Amino acid sequence: MTATIRSILVRTHACTCSSLVLLSSILVAGCSQDSSTGPSAPNAVMSRESGGRTSDLRGVLRAAGFTGQVGLTLEARLGRPVDRRVAELGRMLWFDPFTGLNNDNSCGGCHSPSNGFGDTQSIAIGIDNNGIVGPDRGGPRNQRRTPMAINTAFFPTLMWNSRFFSASGDPFDNSRGFIFPPPEGKSLSYLSHLLQAQAFIPPTERTEAAGFKIPGTSHDLRQAVLDRLNGNRAYRQLFASAFADLRHGRPITFDHFGRAIAEFEFTLVFANAPIDRFARGESEAMSQSQKAGALLFFGRAGCVRCHAVGGQSNEMFSDFRQHVAGIPQVAPSHANVIFDGPGANEDFGLEQVSGRQADRYLFRTSPLRNVGLQPAFMHNGAFVRLEDALRYHLDARSQARTYTTAALATDLRGPTGPSAPVLNRLDPLLRRPVALSEEEFTQLVDFLRYGLLDSDARPNELRGLVPTTLPSGLPGFRFQFPEGRRGSPTDR
Ligand code: HEC
Ligand code: HEC
Q: Is there a domain that residue 120 lies in?
């Protein structure tokens, strides 16, 4: 396992979500009172400029409550060490199509180590796939892009429309319940972490993993998965050695499944990026260009107003709230999910869960750590280059006029769903275009792609997590790992 849990530090949670708004307005006003001197450079002008950037950025990060230490808080917040044996079992389950009742998918078919445990596809392909995980994956599409599962231990709300969340605002704290849409509702709140509860859901999703052969409710589908696990000698042994209460032949329950999956996810914390190292005092961890990009992000470009780092955002670069970002509506020609709207070519986002028309097109602010590992961007992978996604995001209303699906996979290149109703609801914070010079644009991209990248999460580092054989004896997926372009995050 590559992820290492380093020393443990305790963090306090003084800052609430509402104070984030206040914080960000202070940030936009700028803070450069820091008087520490930068590193000396041969050129005096350069030296002043880079020293200024370093001390400005220190001040900005401090004001935002960014410490660069969140990754180190995991075990303190769990209140115990990560259990390696349970995590190792979770890793097997993650990659074993045995847990998918259609026999052809599991978490790893969509959340792939080749892309930070996110997808290789713009829109997920679940059941009836061709066994490949990578650019050549084929099969009917679901509705959205699979987000990266790394760092989800720190997410207080899950999914593109935040439909699973911890009511306390803290995924480690179940005291106010874990809220899911029906039929689960609050019933999974007895589990100790939001991810343990979340793991109950994918095996019951028919288009993702369960398929249509076994009738019944979510409960019946979970029972069918448990029957498989309990009927398999290798899994019975693995569960019994991971969980003390299963030692004497008691049957595996879904709690054990959820705990194993979540434990594996706890090992997937990759929050040691240049910006973290910089915040912890390593002035040279970020390049000048990344620092300039970060200053734009936290300052004039206004990104941190939504991609927040303080308080309950756990330094994940998201407020974990919903906004309309005006993203083009990509509609696959071959899908096994019926899309929304009169043309069945839309995604209503939060409205799908709340039933409120006012929530139409609302999607959660994307957490941005390790975004450079993604092959596609936004909730439906409407963009396959970070530059294109960002250019659009800076001025959605004018970019929407020239957007095309030409860069996407063939089955996504058809006409898009309507854009006017989406743009009419564009978040007020995104209505005024952010004007950047070409140099500033490049700096911002540099910050996003490299300044937020934990290099331990690159494909070659995670490749070893794919099991060579599976407890079920089934053949695993065929992973296509990317050939890194020179200088890209996937290049070593
Ligand atoms: C068919 C592909 C597919 C499979 C299989 C799958 N997922 Fe996902 N996963 C997704 C998609 C798509 C989303 C986002 C869905 C949405 O927001 O509507 C998601 C979201 C998530 C999230 C929330 C991430 C975030 O940013 O909030 C977690 C955690 C997660 N999945 C874990 C799992 C686990 C654990 C399994 C296996 C038990 C699994 N997934 C199986 C496609 C998949
Ligand atoms: C009004 C809140 C808001 C502001 C301000 C904002 N964003 Fe976003 N951002 C979002 C939302 C919401 C999404 C997801 C939209 C979707 O997929 O439908 C997103 C998505 C992204 C993505 C794609 C990530 C992914 O996983 O695909 C990037 C990159 C990004 N934002 C960067 C920025 C930068 C850089 C700025 C500042 C110039 C910025 N954002 C300003 C709300 C915001």
A: yes
Q: What is the CATH number of the domain that holds 111?
A: 1.10.760.10
pLDDT-derived band of residue 49, with 50, 70 and 90 as boundaries? low
Q: How far apart are the first and last CA of the chain?
A: 19
| Any atom of ligand 2 within 6 Å of the Cβ of 427 | yes
Model confidence at 24, pLDDT cuts 50, 70, 90, reads very low
pLDDT tens by residue, 161-209: 999 999 999 999 999 999 999 999 999 999 999 999 999 999 999 999 9
Neighbour order of strands in the sheet with 164-166: 157-158, 164-166, 178-179
Q: How many CA atoms lie within 13 A of 172 on its CB side?
A: 17
The confidence score (pLDDT) of residue 164 equals 98
- 187, part of any domain: yes
User: Which residues form ligand 1's pocket by a CB distance below 6 Å?
Assistant: 105-107, 109-111, 124, 126, 142, 144, 146-147, 149, 152, 155, 158-160, 195, 198-199, 202-203, 208-209, 261
CA distance 435 to 301: 8
Closest CA to 289 of 57, 446, 438, 441: 446
Question: Is there a domain that residue 102 lies in?
Answer: yes
Domain containing 131 equals 78-269
pLDDT at 35 over 70: no
Distance, CA of 219 to CA of 240 (rounded, Å): 23
Mutate to test the pocket of ligand 2, among 303, 319, 399, 441 (most ligand atoms within 8 A of CB): 303
Percent of the chain with pLDDT over 70: 89
Tell me how many domains the chain contains: 1
Q: Which residues of 130-144 are buried (b: 16+ CB within 10 A; e: fewer)?
A: eebbbeebebbbbbb
The dihedral region occupied by 281, where left means phi > 0, alpha psi between -120 and 50, and beta the remainder, is: left
Is 39 domain-assigned?
no
